[in-house]
């Protein structure tokens, strides 16, 4: 028998709304919604707001007309980051193997902890849930199984049950339950299957997770590649993507380089900064991170350093957003009377971008920029690096 992983997914319920209620207990039991930056749309809802029928991502101007009794709050992200840190650090009391997946989710590898805590894994996740609730005041749901994909599925179940019965917040999918759970799970509800893939699979009469795992390996590999095949085995309880505590997010990402010659050409330096920005953003996207701040640095011929930094209104990882700020910073510090030897760009205050709550911050403009940047990555993948540059004036 192969060695199996024991993986738990801890996911904070209605995270941003819960944080607001924690800071203002008068909100408890009331329908509360948190709005995206510039109050564009709804990005988190308390259970009471959900029960009224307020939808995730709904534009604020529509929601406030339709749901007049709901309390709408502007987001307070430093506060959410702070509470997220408290929750995450609690998890390390149980295992060093914690993979912080987003601001409100983390995977835990619990293998072996049963002996340490002298209880079953189910008892342990219940203990974790209660302790987070008691010590921090945040409700979490925890799914337990043998792979991340199954833990995610279990966690969704835990949330579903928790809505009706707030005393329950954990759910386990053991080996004996896998088959039945896969039969009940719609293909589009599986983590990692997007709308397009689900539509494709449905054309092949695959409508449940069970149908998917019944396909032979060669077919899955041909249609969905290795990712698809990994997904099949994850669903069968064999972790292909174990918990990776190393994946804990870097604090910043920096790219710098020296110029070929000393220069004081504005255009030349901006082009270099744009190039570094692209490399920084590409790395952010690769790691699924977004950045809340950016700094730039110019080093003079005499090794004197000029630098400046600023924040984004909303976390981003697109060149097009970065370049606007980079250009402003550059104008702030550039002195045409000096000669420069190198420059650099650094993305600061990184958080996971992979979270639906975060991606919904994106205003239309940012979303467009995001799409352009993704297209850029694809073109580079196909034709190699440096086929495209942002012109110096592209963003004026
Ligand atoms: Mg959550």
Show the helix and strand layout.
Elements: E1 7-12, H1 15-23, E2 32-35, E3 42-45, H2 47-52, H3 60-66, E4 71-74, H4 77-91, E5 98-102, E6 105-109, H5 113-117, H6 121-135, E7 140-145, H7 148-164, E8 170-172, H8 175-184, H9 195-203, H10 209-213, H11 217-235, E9 253-263, H12 266-286, E10 289-300, E11 305-316, H13 319-333, E12 340-352, H14 356-359, H15 364-383
Parallel strand pairs: 2-4, 7-8
Antiparallel strand pairs: 1-6, 1-7, 2-3, 5-6, 9-12, 10-11, 10-12
Helix pairs in contact: 12-13
The structure holds magnesium ion (MG).
Strand order of the largest sheet: 5-6-1-7-8
Q: What share of residues are in beta strands?
A: 15-25%
* Helicity range: 40-55%
CATH architecture of one domain: 2-Layer Sandwich
Instruction: Give me the number of helical elements.
Output: 15
The CATH class designation of one domain is Alpha Beta
Task: Identify the bound ligands.
Answer: magnesium ion
Classification by helices and strands: alpha+beta
Shape: globular
Mean pLDDT: 88
Describe the biggest sheet?
Answer: 5 strands, mixed
Unreliable runs, pLDDT <50, ≥5 residues? 354-362
Assembly classification:
single chain
Evaluate the radius of gyration: 24 Å
Through-space gap between termini: 62 Å
Please identify which CATH superfamily of one domain we are dealing with.
DNA polymerase, Y-family, little finger domain
Give the tally of β-strands: 12
């Amino acid at each position: 028998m192969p060695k199996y992983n024991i993986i738990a997914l801890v996911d904070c319920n209605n995270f941003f709304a819960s944080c607001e209620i924690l800071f203002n207990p008068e909100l408890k039991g009331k329908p509360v919604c948190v709005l995206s930056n510039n109050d564009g749309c709804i990005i988190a809802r308390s259970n009471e707001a959900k029960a009224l029928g307020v939808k995730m991502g709904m534009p604020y101007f529509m929601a406030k007309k339709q749901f007049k009794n709901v309390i709408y709050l502007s987001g307070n992200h430093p506060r959410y980051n702070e509470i997220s840190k408290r929750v995450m650090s609690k998890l390390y009391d149980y295992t060093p193997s914690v993979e912080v997946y987003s601001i409100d989710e983390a995977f835990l590898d619990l293998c072996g902890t049963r002996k340490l805590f002298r209880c079953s894994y189910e008892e342990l996740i219940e203990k974790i849930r209660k302790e987070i609730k008691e010590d921090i005041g945040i409700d979490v749901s925890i799914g337990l199984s043998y792979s991340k994909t199954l833990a995610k599925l279990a966690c969704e179940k835990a949330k579903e049950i928790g809505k009706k019965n707030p005393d329950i917040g954990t759910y386990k999918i053991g080996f004996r339950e896998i088959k039945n759970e896969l039969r009940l799970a719609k293909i589009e509800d599986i983590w990692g299957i997007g709308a397009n893939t689900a539509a494709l699979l449905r054309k092949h009469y695959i409508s449940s997770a069970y149908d998917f795992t019944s396909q032979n390996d060669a077919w899955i590999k041909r249609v969905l590649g290795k990712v698809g095949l990994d997904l099949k085995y994850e669903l069968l309880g064999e972790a292909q993507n174990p918990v990776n505590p190393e994946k804990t997010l870097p604090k910043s990402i920096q790219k710098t380089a020296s110029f070929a010659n000393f220069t004081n050409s504005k255009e030349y330096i901006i082009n270099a900064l744009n190039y570094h920005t692209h490399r920084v953003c590409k790395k952010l996207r690769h790691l699924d991170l977004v950045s809340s701040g950016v700094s730039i640095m110019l080093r003079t011929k005499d090794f004197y350093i000029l630098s400046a930094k600023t924040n984004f209104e909303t976390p981003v990882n697109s060149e097009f957003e970065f370049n606007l700020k980079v250009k402003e910073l550059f104008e702030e510090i550039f002195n045409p009377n000096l000669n420069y030897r190198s420059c650099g760009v650094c993305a600061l205050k990184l958080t996971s971008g992979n979270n639906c709550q975060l991606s919904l911050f994106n205003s239309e403009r940012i979303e467009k920029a995001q799409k352009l940047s993704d297209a850029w990555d694809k073109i580079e993948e196909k034709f190699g690096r440096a086929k495209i540059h942002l012109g110096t004036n592209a963003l004026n």
